[in-house]
Design brief:
Elements: E1 2-7, H1 12-24, E2 28-31, H2 43-54, E3 60-65, H3 69-75, E4 83-85, H4 89-97, E5 103-107, H5 113-125, H6 132-138
Helix pairs in contact: 1-5, 2-3, 4-5
Length: about 140
């Protein structure tokens, strides 16, 4: 499975650890994130991930910044992208089960790298429940 990943300067170490972990599991990763620790603008790294998810080039994306708010706000501007901020495995499960999130947003300043890896595993292994939740998902996109 292909996955797109993006990060700003707060998430470089996280991204590298996540890519290494996912590579050992056989995932193909498209890395749109910065490899530096110097300050950068997170939208520059969010847009290509969100576009890949929107255009079904990848089924899932991973975004990492300090609080995860900026990356989530940016990604959620895209039609059919549902980016959820996750800081525990339980929240991660729920964002997949109830919201059919297709991008996980990780707050690097509020999680540990191992915790982030565990959340990624949960995100990729958890299925959308559908049913009553699908009706709600259908109401997210604004009419044009």
């Amino acid at each position: 499975m292909k996955i797109a990943i993006g990060n700003d300067h707060a998430g470089t170490a996280y991204k590298n650890a996540i890519i290494e972990h996912l590579n050992t599991k056989g995932y193909i990763i498209t890395n749109y994130g910065t490899d530096a620790n110097e300050s950068v603008d997170y939208p520059d790294f969010v847009h290509p991930v969100a576009k890949d998810v929107q255009n079904a080039i990848v089924p899932f994306g991973i975004l990492i910044c300090g609080s995860a708010n900026g990356v989530a706000m940016t990604a959620n501007k895209y039609k059919d992208v549902r980016a959820g901020i996750c800081w525990t495995k339980e929240i991660t499960s729920l964002t997949r089960q109830h919201n059919n999130a297709n991008i996980i947003c990780i707050p690097a300043r509020y999680t540990a790298i191992q915790q982030a890896i565990e959340m990624i595993n949960t995100f990729l292994e958890t299925k959308f429940e559908g049913g009553r939740h699908q009706k709600r998902i259908d109401k997210i996109t604004l009419p044009v």
